[in-house]
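In the previous chapter we treated chains in isolation. Here, by contrast, the input contains two separate entities that must be folded as one system, with a combined length of 707 residues.
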Amino acid sequence: MIHKLTMPKWGLSMTEGKVVAWLAEDGAEVDAGAEVVEIETEKIASGLEVPQRGILRQVSKIGEMAPVGGLIGVIVDGGDSQAEIDAFVAEFQASFVPEEAEEESASAEPETIEVLGKTMRYLKRGEGGDPAILFHGFGGDLNNWLFNHEVLAANRAVYAVDRPGHGGSSKDVGSATPDSFKDTLAGVMDALDLPKAHLVGHSMGGGVSLDFALAHPERTLSLVLIASTGLGPEIDGGYIDGFVTAGKRRDLKPHLEKLFADPKLVTRQLIDDVLKYKRLDGVDLALRTIADQFFPEGQQALILRDQLSKLSVPTLVLWGAEDRIVPVSHAEGLPANIETRILPGAGHMVQMEAAAQVNRAITSFWE
Amino acid sequence: MGRKITFQQAVTEALVQEMERDKSVVLMGEDVAGGSGADGEMDAWGGPLGVTKGLWGKFGDRVLDTPISESAFVGTAIGAATAGLRPVVELMFVDFMGVCFDQIFNQAAKFRYMFGGRARTPVVIRSMIGAGFRAAAQHSQCLYPVFTHIPGLKCVIPSTPYDAKGLLIQAIRDDDPVVVFEHKVLYTIEGEVPEESYTIPFGEANYVREGDDVTIVALGRMVHMSTEAAEILMKEGIDCEVIDPRTTSPLDEDTILESVEKTGRLVVVDEASPRCNMATDISAMVAQKGFDSLKAPIKMVTPPHTPVPFSPVLEDMYVPDAAKVAAAVRDVMGHKAQAA
């Protein structure tokens, strides 16, 4: 059996990617979920995992560009001959037509809904199954899930939502109380016609999801908290303040670098994208209001740790061991009903920096 | 992907959104409405290329047609700014600015300095620049270096629809006089522009493209000539970084120096006449502050020191293009080969 390994689509604007390194040799036996190739886009670089166990045959050479969906390698499991593999590759290359940028964007275009009188933007991927909602953190947007969304949506509909004040959603956050954010999440589920869903929250999106799950266990199928707030008082107040106040590339860069264990992941394009968001009218006020409400004086205000033992839904906690924003110690000593994984070598944006492990952990947790 | 609109639509949208947000924003200029009493849609001009078309119908008396007397109406706008309005005054072509220099150079630019920092002059002067329209010597100049020379003025040269909207909104909200230079050839280019209002701070250059071998600094239409050149050079194995300062006053020296520190080579592309232009200014700045980083002499790509020709053949030869930029880059790269 020959399986394709194709150029993934990471983020709405990606049309092609570059193979910068092979992490497994041509002909090597690789396990399902192993990262075998390093891909670079104009925005970011990450490893790509293989879907099946088998023998890796490299197709793209290092430094080569490939369009989204293009063949970069194959995984052979079984006794297919070199001739059969060559024929498979030749047939794919002969019939492959890269999707036009226009068509591609039409197939994965974010949509908007009205929730409590405000516009909310979301991106849906996948169909059927028990649905899941991805909820990003403070200052983020649905693109924070670019390495996760497609993989998690293999067997179900997965909605990545821009939280109030963020991304393409309304910048009016009112007084940004925890209750208003809980109500918004309930409103999103109502508008999308989802009586129940799996919730996956990163950072402050995790804190809000936890708060919601405690209030509405009947609507929460399960809960995944990634580097979540709400589990202790500490947070890097300098980061929150720096992110809110920085207006230029040079000022913002050192703060964004704190988000990753490897600061090189903070590309100029990533900084520019964050600045484009921060420069929209209303964002400054929204971020300041949220920060005042949730992180006054450099501490977390909404701490739900003592209620975790009452939590009746299956819960998984994931953390990067090198998180510099919310300390990894918040993942320690949690009640026994909660499954916990600490991922080495990753910082606060663990779902980006250790995407393959996070995807595997969530997928097996859901099963 | 985000919504795409033209440069011209981006300018119009910035004006509309700021007029809706702030009642003190008014528009003035020759034919900005298009004849007193026109409804703003039918037979209205909306400025020489229609940027303000339709606004009279929306905002009525806040869109003021003026007589053909630049010194009078630019002076009026500057006076109104000191008295609390935020006028956006359009002066069709930058070539006509000469008749109102006193109002701009001696009045608007000086008030804050001469009144002990207590006067504000939040006026925006919009004007078209550039060759390529077969409009001859009196309608084709790039006079932004003249304004950059004057302390007290802020000078903005957008090169994309995104920048055109964000920089114009920033200009309107700024409390100092700002001159916005819009290249007429760029009005039809399309790009992604958020529907929401946003600002871009002055004095922050844009990395149009990242590269390791040569830094190309370019403004306005020349940004596009430079990226085109960078594409050609990429196939030859030369990796160009293209930087668009976006504003010449204030100028983001740090970003230019940071880039030259990495690449060691600088080509500055400027459509303004070659003497005392932004190319000479930026080259001198890098020679003074970044000399140790340079591996090759700085190269400037500019038109010749002549008026813009009316003959289409000569005009095309006059304007710097991608081939000229690419040739300059090959030159500075070649210098390294000799040295090695």
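Chain B has a mean pLDDT of 93. Residues 15 and 278 of chain B are 28 Å apart (CA to CA). Compare these points with the single-chain example from earlier in the chapter.
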